[in-house]
Amino acid sequence: MISPASKSTALNVRTKAGTKSGTKSGTKSASLVPPSKLLDHLRSLPLDEDSFKHFDEYERHFKVKGYKEGGYKGKGGNKGRGNRGGGVDREVICLNIVLEKTSRLRKDPKVYERGSALFLSSLPLSVNEYTVTSYLKFINTHSPTPHLDAKLISSSLLSRSWPSVRPNGVVISMIMNTLSRHYTSNPQGGDSSVLEGTLMDLLKVLDHRQDGVGGFNVLLKFFVRRLDKKAVEGVVKRMREMGIKNDKFTVSTLATFLVRTNGEGEIKENVERLVKEMEENDIRWDDELGSIFVRSTLLYPPGTGGGSAALSYSSKMTAYGLAVPPSTHGDVVESLCRDGSLTKAIEYYRSHKSSNTCGSLIRGVAEKGKFEIALKVFENFKETDESEFVYSEIIKAAGDECKKAMVGEGSWEERLSKAAQVSGFAASIFDSIPPASPFKNVVVCNSMIRCYGEAHLVSSAFDVYAGMKEANVEPTMVTFGSLAAACERCGAIERVGVLLEELRDMGLAPNEFVYGSTIGAFKKKGKWRKAVNLLNKMARSDELVVTTSTFNAVLSACAEGGELESLMQIWKVMKEKGSKEKESRPNIQTFSIVIEALCNAKQPNQASEIIVEMAEWGVPCTTDIFTQVVTSCERERQYRNALKVYAAMSDAGVKYYEIGVLDLALKRMLKVVKNIADFDFDLRSFSSESMNDTSSAMKVEVKENSSVCYFPSRNEVFYNPVQVLNRDLSITMIRQFGETLVKERKEKLLKKQIRKDWLSKDENATVSKTGLRHPKKGVKEPDYLAQASEQLAGTNWFAEVDKEHNERVAWRKAVKSGDAELPERPPPGLKILDCLAASGLRSMRYFKEIKNVDLVAVNDLDPAAIELAENNIEVNGVDPSVVRTRVGDGTMLCYEARSGVETVRDDPRGKNIVDPKFPIKGKFDVIDLDPYGSCAPFTDCAVQAISNGGLLCLTSTDMAVLSGNHADTCFSKYSAMPMHKSGYLHELALRIFLQSVESQANKYGKHIVPLASFGIDFYIRVFVRVYESPVEVKKSSTKMGYVYQSTGCPSFNVVPTGTFTGRSYVPTILNTVAESGGVCAETGRPLKVAGPVWIAPIHSQDFVSSCIKRVEDQKTGKVEPDAPLPTTKRLHGLLTTAFEELPDQPLYYLLPNLCSTLRCTVPPRSQFIAQMEKLGYKVSASHKEADAIKTDAPNDVIWDVLRNWVRLHPISAKRKQKGGETWGGKDGLTASMKILQTEPKFQCDFEDLSSKSLQERKKAVRYPMNPEANWGPKSRGGLGVVGKRAAEETKEKEMGEDEKGGEDGGGESRPKKKNRGEERT
């Protein structure tokens, strides 16, 4: 090998190496080849027989004196290029041939040494650019350091050391290729900016006079192939500087580059500029160039004229007489669809009908959400032609529609139902293709599998795969990838295992997509060990690249499984791979998973170290991650690490002093560390910007109706717009409840007066010895309450409430001013407890928007939340003597309130919350509980703290528990078993919750009367009155019951727990269930049991009707004209649908579920309801489910109606066979067959009937769509560190030193995990 130093000195000086190298160069040959035949002789020498034969023959001939004399210069060989003085030297041509041929040998350092010496010794000859090109090929094959050789050649060209060499595009592109190969494969080998600088230098010496635009085209083609944007821009810039115009090849290359780079930059402007240059330079279009321009319009941003441009380009192709390819027609249609011009796209399709245009139109309209139009286009095309492409596109469109449905709005069941309906359309299309048809190939099958996967129908996806095997359609890796993705979505890990075994049996290795989906499925099911094992298999394979998303899935699985050690090992492997492969580099999600796991494991010191690593990887750290680590450091008292994180935030430009939670945490820690004697951390950098007033962080304003709240830019108490309806509903209910209380009080007083007047008459009463008057024997007392109600019938109760409210305001004002003569004290108003208040927004709205309020108690366990609430109370100008704040446990407040004494308690902040004028004393009229999660821990204390006839407003957001996903948790919290995957799960959740509240109340001789119960968005909200009545408590067994659900169909029966015999309450006899032998009467399948549940009405029709009237009056300004509610329309619709529900019929059916069991089409809802009403039954919907059928008809009647429907709309035999699994193997009948084999007891013709109940419905907004994306619960607000410590210290004070150890504690037991005191505002 020749060192670079020796090369640099040999570039301009001829060496003797060429004459001395080689063992055979000095040997004499028998004869020399005639000069005229030397070229052919060198070309014909075979390779690999003797690696040095070409060098030996070249040197042997040209070393002989006189061999080159006479006529050995000419214009042959290189077609006259090279020397400009009279042809190319014959020796140069031979040298080119030797270098060209030896570059094809196997890599050999000795060959490199010999050839390099030969090239350097020949430099004084008039070598040309072809010699340089041949030598570049040679060094790329044999040189151990080709980039250094290429650098030397580049330097020689730039210094003009070889006058006979004129650099052209081929030479420059080969130099750049050699350099770029080195820098791409060895990122640590040097600065890759060398490439850009070298290119710019070489472009300056490019001999464009020799090559013209062709040299630049060679370079462009080379860099476009490598997608090197900077190099392409450099070449184009140099062309413009030198005044070289584009030719057709230039334009085509640049247009191709724009398309292949996915429109980086302003693709529209760039393409239009290219078209303009073509017109200016008279460049004629051809079909390839026109197709590229049309394809480029697909990359235009939607709505920017891409469709019009595609039409224009295709028209130009036609005008030039060019044949427009079918694929280009398809691109025109797709571009029109992307631009929103669906009408033009359909017209173009009609004029250029083909499989390409049809497939593009189907894809385009489906992307715009017009799946129905896509189906019509498919049917139109199928009438005249068939195509694999069209079949594939319509099924793909169905898969995309299923994907949209599953991430769209509505409940999980609604989304599943919609996706199942769309996949059913796709299945009918797929089934219509004959099995032997060439169109039922692997592409179409893969599309169908993907469609089923998007619809979460994993069994159907595997049915398609089984059909492929039966039809001998060979699956591809795309097939297995689609099946694995379907398993991931459904968490079907058993099927994933079968899939991997089949791949192994076929001798195929899973690719990255199959592995990634399988790992995702294991993660969903919490199988972290299996996920780690699969990751290890991927890492051991040289052909697979473990992507970042795959690593993240395994890391997340380990984090959820609490396996920190495994997580850190995988994190180490990921960093090693990420340093070599960009596909495995960690991203922000990776760091978030690892840091959260470390913080949860109480290792914030390692988490702070990983924040430093984020900067090294070039991943910016988010404020949420900073906050998480700081909070963890403070919790573990690692103040030094926390301050280091603050320093890192400062370096990253994060203004933590403007972020409330970070600023407050820093202030707390600074106060602590200043008292530590040996704390040597420099605190000066934090003093100026962190010691500002806390109020500086209060910058975010949230206005909701009459109240305004100020929040820090980031805070542990979040504002959730979803809950605006919750608060509006609560205000409406409490307003109406307040009127009801005033009415009941007036009726009670009037009833007393009427009785007194009646007894004052001698004909009605006698006087006892004590002087009291009693009714005479035999004289029947009148109904005093009815008389009182009759006399008060025309009273305007809103005006009465308003009058009492004004009297109360005046009395309160007089008390505060210290007037000597106080007005008469008004009757008592409402006492409201917001037990889990957080920011206090709900409490402020209660005070400002509900009249006749005496007290609103604002309670929260977190002092930081109460401080925020107090600030907001002050900002809103709310009377602090009425809206009273309190820091403490809400359950303890309720337990203290039940005794009727003042709830005096020390505040952890050192404040006394007792005001002698306005004490928090006695039970509450309204208690609002809106926790994050289950309300179960609070119901026991709430039913004790509520006054007789008081109102409980309760919320539970643990719908996953109440819906049956965690039956054991549901039973432990609510003492009831749920029914998993039932159609009526929303109402069942309400009834389980009401049963739990009733059971808690019964223990204290109380019972509940539900006023209204709602399933809203992601939670349930109930409003119940609690009465003290031991007599009514005895009736509770008749209000509870069990649900017996068939496992084969949606049929169910509700059986009460107890029955009243006229004298006593006894257990219910299971007549209905017993008659069927304990199995479903329709299918013969076993029954599942859920309960106990509340089976009495969940709404008070009178109360809900009053609320509806109140909301309607608000629109006209009759009531609350100054405080209209933000969600009036939705609130009115919710109340209206609740009022329309049948009050005495628990649970409901879903019409699509009934038809799905039979595998039949779904009848129009209006016709089904009309048919039921014609039979004499009542039917209604549910306030939560639009497809619900709530009826008093028995199960057999409902099935008989559907049997008549199937008679009129038969089911295909193929769909009957797919009607479900056979039961027990006895009769071999599916559920559908079992139901349909029974003849209906009556005939229905489903004529065009009109439903009376539907016609009489009020006009209202029913089942509105969610107003924005991600409409759901927000993250749980964390309890501040100060709040936790204050709560712990308070608890320790109460328990005393003996109880603190937990051995002899006599206090009441507390739940280990208690709900935070934050309202999800």
TrEMBL record:
InterPro entries: PPR_rpt (IPR002885), SAM-dependent_MTases_sf (IPR029063), TPR-like_helical_dom_sf (IPR011990), Trm1 (IPR002905), tRNA_met_Trm1_C (IPR042296)
Record's keyword terms, sorted: Methyltransferase, RNA-binding, S-adenosyl-L-methionine, Transferase, tRNA processing, tRNA-binding
Enzyme Commission code: 2.1.1.216
Reaction(s) catalysed by this chain's protein: guanosine(26) in tRNA + 2 S-adenosyl-L-methionine = N(2)-dimethylguanosine(26) in tRNA + 2 S-adenosyl-L-homocysteine + 2 H(+)
CDD domains: AdoMet_MTases
Single GO biological process annotation from the record: tRNA N2-guanine methylation
PPR repeat placement: 441-475, 476-510, 547-581, 587-621
Biased amino acid composition, Basic and acidic residues: 1285-1321
Principal EC category: transferase
One Pfam assignment: TRM
Gene Ontology CC terms: nucleus
Family matches, as SUPFAM superfamilies: S-adenosyl-L-methionine-dependent methyltransferases (SSF53335)
PROSITE patterns assigned to the protein according to its UniProt record, in alphabetical order: PPR, SAM_MT_TRM1
Compositionally biased intervals (Low complexity): 15-31
Compositionally biased region (Polar residues): 1-12
Family of this protein: Belongs to the class I-like SAM-binding methyltransferase superfamily. Trm1 family.
Name under which the protein is recorded: tRNA (guanine(26)-N(2))-dimethyltransferase
Organism: Triparma columacea
Lineage of origin: Eukaryota, Sar, Stramenopiles, Ochrophyta, Bolidophyceae
